[in-house]
Design a protein that fits this description.
The chain is mostly helical and 274 residues long. The protein contains 12 helices and 2 strands, in the order E-E-H-H-H-H-H-H-H-H-H-H-H-H. It has a two-stranded antiparallel ribbon. A hairpin with a 3-residue loop joins strand 1 and strand 2.
């Protein structure tokens, strides 16, 4: 059936688009994410819905699968830049956030599978606005560590982890845009190190959400779109690597407002999606 006269889909949400178009879309998203040190899943989700015509839950599941591939690919590069020996002393930070994020991931994926599609579109639109605000705050401001007692910091880490896990599961993203500032604010860790620690949190968190989604009938969208998934994953990884090489080339004062505007425009489009 047709979606806005552009994308043809079958009963399982299959889409027939030229491989070059799918690869280009994935590469474009990866490039945007790589230029700001992220995977770009926040930009990919609106494309899966608006350009390729997937239903909300199918788009989230596809986005989650693609995010897993991008994060797993990024791990070796991050370990080369920040050795495991530098990360090991901060294992308590990872454990603190994971204790909450894995619970949040299961809850978020459960809620997504039980929501009406119209409601999920609205939720995703609101979350895109939140991600846009986080993007602006992270890259145009200077995070300062919060002065908290040890017990309060642990509790704050658990609560933040739950919230981040819910958002990451609902959107099918890794959650780096929320994890990195949380690690900096709560634990006073350098932002470069925080980026690597965020991967250590996001990968298990995504696996939990992915496991929960695998129990839903909509998970069949992955089997029905194996070729689409492989081509877009290749594009996303290629774009991310290229974007990483261009990291810092475009001034943040120019790039970030453009990306924020893109996310806000996407939020409006997803909100109005039928």
């Amino acid at each position: 059936m047709a979606n806005s006269g552009r994308t043809e889909q079958g009963p399982l949400g299959t889409t027939q688009r030229p491989s070059v178009e799918v690869f280009a879309a994935g590469a474009g998203v990866g490039l945007l994410g790589g230029m700001i040190g992220l995977g770009g899943a926040e930009f990919r989700l609106p494309l899966l819905i608006s350009l390729f015509g997937f239903a909300a839950l199918q788009a989230v599941i596809l986005n989650k699968a693609l995010s897993l591939v991008v994060v797993a690919t990024a791990l070796p590069a991050r370990l080369a830049a920040v050795p495991l020996a530098d990360l090991a002393p901060h294992w308590t930070v990872v454990a603190n956030l994971l204790a909450g994020s894995m619970i949040g991931a299961w809850l978020g994926a459960t809620w997504a599978t039980r929501m009406r599609s119209a409601t999920l579109y609205r939720v995703l639109a609101v979350l895109l606005v939140i991600i846009a605000a986080a993007l602006a705050a992270n890259h145009l401001g200077t995070p300062v560590q919060l002065a908290l007692a040890p017990a309060a910091r642990i509790l704050a880490g658990l609560v933040a982890g739950v919230g981040i896990g819910v958002v990451a599961a609902l959107m099918g993203v890794a959650g780096g845009e929320l994890l990195i500032p949380t690690i900096v604010l709560l634990y006073g860790i350098d932002i470069k190190l925080a980026g690597s620690l965020s991967l250590a949190v996001s990968l298990p968190t995504m696996i939990v959400a992915f496991t929960r989604y695998s129990r839903d009938a909509s998970f069949s969208v992955l089997r029905a779109n194996g070729r689409f998934l492989a081509v877009m994953a290749a594009g996303s990884v290629t774009g991310s690597l290229l974007g990483g090489l261009l990291l810092g080339v475009v001034p943040a004062a120019i790039l970030i407002p453009l990306l924020v505007a893109l996310l806000l425009a996407s939020a409006v489009k997803v909100w109005r999606h039928r």
